[in-house]
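Dear support,

Our group has been running a series of protein-ligand predictions, and this particular one with pyridoxal-5'-phosphate is the one our PI (initials K.S.) wants archived with full inputs and outputs. We had some confusion internally about which version of the output was final, so please treat the block below as the authoritative record. The input we submitted was:
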Amino acid sequence: MDFLPFTRPSIDEDTIADVGNVLRSGWITSGPKVAAFEAALSDYFGGRPVRVVNSATGALEIALRLIDLRPGDEVITTPLTWVATTNVVINAGGKPVLVDIDPVTRNIDLDALEAAITSRTRAVIPVDLAGLPVDRDRLYAIAAKYNLRVIEDAAQSQGSTWQGRRIGSFGDLCSISFHANKNMTTTEGGALVMNNAEEARQFEKWRLQGVTRFPDGTMDVDLPGGKYNLTDVAAAIGLGQLKHIDAFNARRKVLAQRYFDLLDPALGLDLPPTSDESNWHMFQPLLPLDRLNISRPEFIARMKEHGIGIGVHYPVLHLFSYYRALGYKEGMYPHAERAGASTITLPLFPAMQDSDVDRVCAALQAVLLQALK
Ligand SMILES: *Cc1c(COP(=O)(O)O)cnc(C)c1O
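Confirmed final output from the archive:
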């Protein structure tokens, strides 16, 4: 029986051929494919300016430059996210301020967010975990009331909507990831959706050594930019992927619905909320660990014996050693800690067959019924 990983990219032959075209063209780093990819992404995000980089982490780093984050500035976010979300704040000299999640959505608790605002708060970074969008109405009402910038970490939510409007097509800054595991990929890559042409111009400088090139062939450097540019090889993959993103997400939705239909409530799994607005980046039940006589690593090992790959996204970030050394400890964010300790990511990717979902459910049935106390 084939091993079923928890995710796998779908890259079509036209895309692979176009990568070959780029490699043969004589221009393989940032060039016409990047420009075409950015134009296509701008169309996708409602005409807003979009610039691409070599990771979403880089997009977040540049976003913090664009809002001119200063040492000691506070940025509020969630502990249940990929640690990139807070690492970038620390590397920019800011202070991440964590608040607990809403146990139902598993996204940042917006009441807790509002309560954590101080005179030092400059920005908030909402994360659409697993693709489920944070309540944008409430979020932007809070941001307006306290005059905060919003950097949406939409790494997982490309194609998700809030009340029918595509995430990234409205709001403040919005970061997207094209990492191999995301809903579309450039192998590695990311993008930032911005508000206006001036932000995009500043972004371009931060992206590549602070350089501005003038029509007469001269150049200047007026800020210490970094090296974040995406290659044309990667952009060619992105252009090929973007053609399929809506179909990919539609297929994910069908597969997620099949999980809801087939998972036996007797297994005691705490399922994610149903949603028509999620892009179903991940399908993540919580294990009923207090009712099981096996740990999560043992559960994962047993699923592997059934040929099923299980992911963990994520252990809460405040309990990693670097963050513990900053003073974070167990018990500070109980809802996030419970989710982080018991979450599992089931296989979900566009090329999966319906029968693959059935296989996962059958394996879950076998492993969990045997392990229930
Ligand atoms: C994947 C991810 C990132 C980082 O994306 P990269 O492109 O790997 O840098 C940041 N935040 C979240 C929530 C992610 O899932």
